Amino acid sequence: MGVIIIDGSTVRAFVNDEPHFNTSVNAQFVSLDVNNDGVLSRSEMRKAFESMRLLETHFGVDTAVPPEELTRIYDSVFQSFDGDHNGTVDPEEFRSEMKKIMLAVADGLGSCPIQMAVEDDDQSFLKQAADLEAAKIEGGS
Ligand SMILES: [Ca+2]
Ligand SMILES: [Ca+2]
């Protein structure tokens, strides 16, 4: 376990590095598609958000929210992903909405870095963003 420090530019650099970002998003999509049918269902998406901690960082939801309120929030998040409203999220929808969310996270962070505790095997996008920046700093000297 360690601590990473990220700010808006870290996140933005990650999103704008398109091949890298797409690879990460696709890998995430595949790992979330538990039943391997090529799309994400409502319950698969809910697991996704619980694991990615995006609700905390983007929507400002704290963990004391009552379950029915959480369900309502997850529903509205699902709907924002499901662009064509067919009840499932395909890879294209997932990628475009993740991009929007990560850019919104970047705007929210602005130039105020935040510290985040992460596990070594954490594969959240924020961790990956921090790793990417670290790799650039190390490789760019
Ligand atoms: Ca699925
Ligand atoms: Ca859809």
Automatic annotation (TrEMBL):
Q: Which Pfam families match?
A: EF-hand_7
PROSITE patterns tied to this protein: EF_HAND_1, EF_HAND_2
Q: Which GO terms describe its molecular function?
A: calcium ion binding
EF-hand domain residues? 20-55, 69-104
Swiss-Prot/TrEMBL keywords:
Calcium
Q: Which SUPFAM superfamilies match?
A: EF-hand
The portions of this protein that span the membrane are none
SMART domains, alphabetized:
EFh
Output this protein's name: EF-hand domain-containing protein
This chain's source organism reads Mikania micrantha (bitter vine)
UniProt lineage: Eukaryota, Viridiplantae, Streptophyta, Embryophyta, Tracheophyta
